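DM from R.C. (forwarded with permission)

"hey, sorry to bug you on a friday — could you get me a structure for this? deadline for the figure draft is monday and I only need the backbone to look sensible"
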Amino acid sequence: MKRLIRLGLMILILVSFISCIAAVGCGEMNKAAERSLPIKGSNTQVDGSQSINEQEKNAMSDVITTDWLMEKYHLSAQDLEEFDMAAILSDHPYSPETIETFYPDKEHLIRSLRSLQQDLDREKEEEQWLAENSRSYLFDGNSEGKDLPPADQLLYLSLESGPSDYMLSDNSPTGKVSVLIDMVACKAYYRFMNQGVAEDIRLAQEIVDLSEADQYLITNSLQDSSVEQWIVIGTTTDTLVEQPEVWRLGLEFSDGSIYTYYIDNLTHQVEPLKLAELLFSFCSHSPMPQKITELS
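My reply, with the result:
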């Protein structure tokens, strides 16, 4: 009997001990859970750490602002009046750590801002120059279903070979040539490299003055070349335009109309080749293959 009583007491003690351990474990787990719960209405955890969303947000916004610079370097509005701060900071989203590392004081910072502003001004001047002088729009015309105005009303003409026409490889390093005829300034601009000269005449590798007789030849050749039968941009696919053998012709007339045409294998067609050879004949060394006799 005594042995049974002793056994029962031992079982009760064991059960009580297990219950205590379970209670302690649950308490610790609850405390741990409480430490990771965000406070309502805040992205900060109970233990002071930030949630992942808040960390990502801070990382995205961890760039300098004009106000930060003014406070950090004791700058006044007058100190910054020569700078386009919105444009500079948009182009250069530096972190505070980067600024503090490379610009220890106000003098170094102002010197850097001045350099960045000069770069910005040069970019704006370049954009303005191209907006006023580039003739790249000659290849944005829509000629579908339209008749050309009289050739003597021509203002600008540009002819470019395809991306790399193998027929030109002997006379052009890249297999591409381009010419811009400016009937207003009486000049012809030539380039024998990748970028077409119509986009930027400052890239011209040769500039030739055109006489009245030269301009007369150009307008006559344009009339005889039957460009209306070339493929017009409205019916040309991107695939065709990018083919090496496809040339493009852009025209602008005094009424403001712009015409763009494409032609495949220009160097294998008599009248288009005659026009091309004439346009390139004014430069010192024509890149055009001499094929008129064999095509005629």
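R.C.: lifesaver. The chain has a mean pLDDT of 77.
me: no worries. Residues 49 and 86 are 33 Å apart (CA to CA).
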